[in-house]
């Protein structure tokens, strides 16, 4: 059917896109794992990063990879305080409450974005061109974004596995009560986790700005992708989200290549619904960690 | 072919009930036969699988294998609501009264859909346990003991033939407890069969004509209380637990 | 006692409002009539959402999809030359047709997962409307020429009829056995199942009822705007409005959605009719406030003032 080079092209494109998705989804998953909160505003936090990169570029001419160094810590702080001011109040309440609350935050962010930036698409087209490997053209922006996303994701993973703080986070994620008894300040951990997730989202946003064009409403597609990824990979399972993200990227790429880009957009939703329904414990206890 | 037939004087028969949760065997081939019109006890140490057994019989847990025959019908795999409407009801260990519904609504919803006199019957039941004036109170505003009583009344609304009681008296004060057991006895006199999980051996000794002992997912003994009490395996299962309850 | 008086008061208020609405077209101008029309629309949508989310507890994040489906169905019926009331019926019918299988599939999921599954529904509708060019004319949408459309008065009264019908439906469900079972499901679905409530059937019926109304409303709306395209039919703002209006007014009640709709629409008209983004941002803030501080909505404030809990159990603290 299609030549192997094209298939390879699609595969690489899919992998790179998937790495970006993975970075985003892992952040969302982390928050869920630690505090059982589903943050519907996660994709909007990503857009905060994207629009920040855009602003810094258009106003100060700052290269997005440099803005990254600014945006990540700033978003960490934003996430940290968002947690303490808002999310803390819905932790422990039924999940629907946190869904509604974060939905509210997402609405506010989207519309603030519309008020500030309008509905036009923006982007930060600093990286152009492709790398040539043998006969394969790999787009530079995608390669850069993908690689950096992967690095960040793996970095966070290593942090969670190796460092003391990371272990504390994992402890809270497994059993918050027991962790508290062991002397871990669970509240601080939650704030830290949300900060990290926001930072990851912001980083994903900067990467996004380099590859795609976006507008304040772009988040809706991305949150769908995140949910699909998390549910496929297992809610609360960090590596699961990493693999799931890459998988989604690849599937989308192939569907886009063989069918159309419109169908590719539907992939995430279709996967999501299919997995949710096929789960053996479909009735009660569906989609548990 | 091994024909598993439930004797006509048995209302509930179970053969080979097995239930596994991710490597842990909660039930290992449980056989159980409850005779009509009796109050049968189900005892055993904590974690032996008693509540799991109830979950399986009542249809809430549909992951078990084996056979269950209730009133001559095989009910394994049926939905809980179907089993309830067939005449098998159960209560929960921790009260599951509907918090935002009134006591009356709690009872009426458990009655038959087309029963026009459901409200009257409900009030009648409440009268029997001196809770009539609480009819309009929201479930969440009752004391725990009152909730358990209401939950007990709730399953009576459909006139079940067999009621599974899961520690119905736990957390209830002595007066209400007595009311509860009196009602059980009264209903039993009218023909309702009971299968009761209890830790209080005095109650078991007093009420139950037949007792099953479950330990670690298996039935290790069955018979009247006197014979159970001196059974080696039973004592072993409870070894280390306080035997104060063993005294009649 | 106080419940009956409440009901009587409600009936009086209702009667006054209905009279006002019926007579209004005689005195007010087209602009105000359009405004009322939109209020009715929001009320109807809100009550529909109330039915599945407020009363049954299955919070749907993508219900506006049924509106979009109804809008397109209605538009197509009109372009094919059929009368407007058939368009409304078709809108409702198609929505119902979709809701049945969808309901059976998604209502098996627990609360948050149902919400997530429904979240994307609106988007899916939009994408399908964009891609199915043969039928929907894709992104350019369908325009309806004026001779196909009924007058503003007809649209006004139809929309009002839908709002009234939706409200009466919710009121009936509230008092019926069906409503009792729905509330039991909302409280504790497993326990409801345990006492004989056929949870699946009840949920699906509530879901379908809650889809039929937006379907009809969508068809009527199309007659009002005289065009339909993917963005307007599957507008996210509608989703947000449905949710926030009901939660703000008081979910699970009869008057809550009406109160919420009226308040939100009046505020919108007064403050930012020109700035849809500001309106939506305000809704977001409202949602946060309600979720964090006022989960019972406006109705709960009014209720607390009225009743000092005369039926609290003796000795119990209210």
How would you portray this structure in words?
The complex is a heterotrimer of chains A (about 290), B (about 250) and C (about 325). Chain A is mainly alpha-helical and about 290 residues long. In chain A, about 75% of the residues lie in helices and about 5% in strands. Chain A contains eleven helices and two strands. Chain A has a two-stranded antiparallel ribbon. Chain A is globular and about 60 Å long. The termini of chain A are far apart. The model of chain A is unreliable at about 280-289 (pLDDT under 50). By secondary structure, chain B is α/β, with parallel strands linked by helices. Chain B has nine helices and ten strands. Chain B has helices at about 50-60, 80-85, 105-110, 120-130, 145-155, 175-190, 200-205, 225-230, 230-235, and strands at about 10-20, 25-35, 40-45, 65-70, 75, 90, 160-165, 195, 210-215, 220-225. In chain B, the strands form two sheets. Chain B has a six-stranded mixed β-sheet, with helices on both faces. Chain B starts with 9 loop residues before the first strand and ends in an 11-residue tail after the last helix. The mean pLDDT of chain B is about 85. Chain C is mainly α and about 325 residues long. Helices cover about 75% and strands about 0% of the residues of chain C. Chain C has 16 helices and two strands. In chain C, strands 1-2 form a two-stranded antiparallel ribbon. Chain C is globular. Classes of the chains: A mainly alpha (about 290), B alpha/beta (about 250), C mainly alpha (about 325). Chains in contact: A-C, B-C. Chains A and C meet through α4, α9 and α11 of A and α5, α6, α13 and α15 of C.
């Amino acid at each position: 059917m299609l030549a192997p080079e094209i298939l390879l092209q699609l595969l690489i494109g899919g992998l790179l896109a998937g790495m970006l998705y993975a970075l985003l989804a892992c952040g969302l998953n982390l928050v869920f794992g630690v505090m059982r909160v589903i943050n519907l505003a996660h994709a909007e936090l990503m857009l905060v990063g994207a629009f920040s990169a855009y602003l810094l570029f258009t106003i100060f001419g700052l290269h997005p990879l440099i803005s990254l160094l600014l945006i990540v810590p700033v978003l960490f702080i934003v996430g940290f305080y968002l947690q303490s001011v808002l999310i803390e109040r819905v932790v422990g309440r039924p999940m629907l409450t946190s869904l509604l609350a974060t939905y509210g935050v997402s609405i506010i962010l989207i519309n603030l974005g519309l008020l500030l930036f309008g509905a036009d698409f923006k982007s930060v087209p600093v990286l152009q061109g492709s790398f040539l490997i043998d006969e394969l053209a790999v787009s530079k922006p995608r390669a850069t974004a993908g690689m950096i996303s992967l690095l960040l994701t793996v970095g966070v993973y290593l942090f969670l596995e190796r460092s003391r703080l990371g272990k504390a986070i994992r402890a809270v994620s497994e059993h918050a009560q027991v962790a508290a008894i062991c002397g871990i300040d669970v509240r601080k951990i939650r704030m830290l986790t949300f900060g990290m997730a926001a930072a990851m989202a912001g980083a994903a946003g900067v990467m996004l700005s380099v590859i795609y064009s976006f507008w304040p409403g772009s988040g809706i597609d991305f949150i769908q992708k995140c949910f699909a990824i998390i549910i496929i990979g297992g809610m609360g399972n960090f590596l699961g989200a990493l693999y799931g993200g890459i998988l989604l990227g690849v599937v989308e790429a192939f569907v886009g290549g063989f069918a159309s880009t419109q169908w590719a957009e539907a992939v995430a939703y279709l996967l999501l619904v299919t997995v949710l329904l096929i789960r053996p414990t479909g009735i009660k206890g569906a989609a548990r960690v | 072919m091994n024909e598993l037939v439930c004797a006509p004087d048995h209302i509930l028969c179970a053969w080979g009930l097995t239930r596994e949760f991710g490597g842990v065997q909660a039930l290992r081939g449980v056989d159980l036969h409850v005779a009509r019109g009796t109050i049968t006890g189900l005892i055993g140490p904590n974690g032996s699988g008693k509540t799991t057994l109830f979950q399986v019989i009542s249809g809430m847990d549909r992951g078990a294998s084996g056979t269950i025959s209730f009133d001559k019908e095989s009910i394994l795999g049926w939905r809980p609501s179907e089993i309830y409407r067939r005449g098998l009801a159960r209560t929960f260990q921790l009260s599951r009264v509907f918090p935002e519904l009134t006591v009356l609504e709690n009872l009426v919803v458990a009655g038959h859909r087309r029963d026009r006199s459901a409200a009257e019957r409900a009030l009648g039941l409440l009268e029997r346990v001196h809770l009539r004036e609480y009819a309009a109170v929201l479930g969440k505003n009752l004391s725990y003991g009152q909730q358990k009583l209401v939950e007990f009344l709730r399953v009576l609304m459909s006139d079940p033939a067999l009621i599974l009681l899961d520690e119905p008296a736990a957390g209830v004060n002595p007066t209400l407890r007595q009311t509860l057991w009196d009602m059980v006895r009264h209903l039993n006199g009218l023909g309702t069969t009971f299968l009761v999980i209890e830790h209080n051996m005095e109650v078991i000794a007093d009420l139950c004509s037949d007792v099953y002992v479950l330990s670690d997912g298996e039935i290790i003994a069955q018979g009247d209380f006197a014979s159970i009490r001196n059974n080696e395996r039973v004592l072993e299962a409870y070894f280390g637990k306080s035997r104060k309850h063993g005294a009649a | 006692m106080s419940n009956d008086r409440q009901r009587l008061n409600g009936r009086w208020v209702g009667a006054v409002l209905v009279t006002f609405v019926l007579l209004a077209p005689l005195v007010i101008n087209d602009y105000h009539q359009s405004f009322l029309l939109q209020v009715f629309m929001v009320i109807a949508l809100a009550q529909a959402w109330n039915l599945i989310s407020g009363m049954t507890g299955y919070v749907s994040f993508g219900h506006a999809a049924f509106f979009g489906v109804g809008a397109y169905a209605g538009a197509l019926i009109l372009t094919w030359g059929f009368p407007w009331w058939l368009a409304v019926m078709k809108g409702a019918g198609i929505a119902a047709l979709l809701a049945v299988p969808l309901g059976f599939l998604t209502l098996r999921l627990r609360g948050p997962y149902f919400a997530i599954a429904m979240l994307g529904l609106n988007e899916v509708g939009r994408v399908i409307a964009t891609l199915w060019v043969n039928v929907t004319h894709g992104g350019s949408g369908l325009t309806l020429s004026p001779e196909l459309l009924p007058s503003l008065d007809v649209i006004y009264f139809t929309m009002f009829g839908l709002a009234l019908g939706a409200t009466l439906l919710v009121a009936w469900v509230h008092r019926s056995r069906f409503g009792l079972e729905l509330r039991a499901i909302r409280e504790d679905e497993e326990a409801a199942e345990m006492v004989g409530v056929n949870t699946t059937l009840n949920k699906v019926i509530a879901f379908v009822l809650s889809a039929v109304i937006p379907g009809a409303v969508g068809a009527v709306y199309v007659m009002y705007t005289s065009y339909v395209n993917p963005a307007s039919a599957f507008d996210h703002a509608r989703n947000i409005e449905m949710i926030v209006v009901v939660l703000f007014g008081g979910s699970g009640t009869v008057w809550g959605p009406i109160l919420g709709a009226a308040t939100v629409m009046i505020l919108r008209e007064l403050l930012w009719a020109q700035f849809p983004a500001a309106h939506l941002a305000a809704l977001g803030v409202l949602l946060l406030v309600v979720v964090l501080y006022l989960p019972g909505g406006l109705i709960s404030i009014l209720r607390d003032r009225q009743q000092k809990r005369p039926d609290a159990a003796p000795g119990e603290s209210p």
